[in-house]
Amino acid sequence: MRVLVVEDEQLLADAVATGLRREAMAVDVVYDGAAALERIGVNDYDVVVLDRDLPLVHGDDVCRRVVELGMPTRVLMLTASGDVSDRVEGLEIGADDYLPKPFAFSELTARVRALGRRTTVALPPVLERSGIKLDPNRREVFRDGQEIQLAPKEFAVLEVLMRSEGAVVSAEQLLEKAWDENTDPFTNVVRVTVMTLRRKLGEPPVIVTVPGSGYRI
Description:
The chain is an alpha/beta fold. Helix content is 41%, strand content 20%. β1 (2-6), α1 (10-22) and β2 form a beta-alpha-beta unit. Keywords: DNA-binding, Phosphoprotein.
């Protein structure tokens, strides 16, 4: 899942990004509305965690732009105000969910995951395919009932492949969904991660390489 965190309180923004990365999400961070509009125009995000009171361009205007573009991106709006009227206004602007500050990180994560599931065709919370069972919320993976320990990026790649439901996923798509914008697009990190993931999942192999196209399960 690819997430953009937009928050002018840099310590909070960086803390949220770090926490979401530990949950196997690819996260970019910006600290004002103008930078958010720039990123949204370049990258495809599943979810934008958007502070409402932003410098340069207000969070409301960022949200309106996402709606105007007709993007599948979901918006989780944050605000220091807990007033019901503010929450209603944010939802009317086009936000998909609303979370007042201060918030529990576990709730933020759950809401981001729930919104991420709504960017594509609805899939069950627990994904199962070819003997693999993946639970994004619990960060658990099992093969034929045996738990498998995966690093965050390995988990992220597996989740993208599982959500594709048998369709081929290119290396470029995996790079876009599982890594942030600071990753060198010419790196072999996707190939190496897939190799490690394939080894950890065991025999017989469930990740198929489609020459010249990508990977599928």
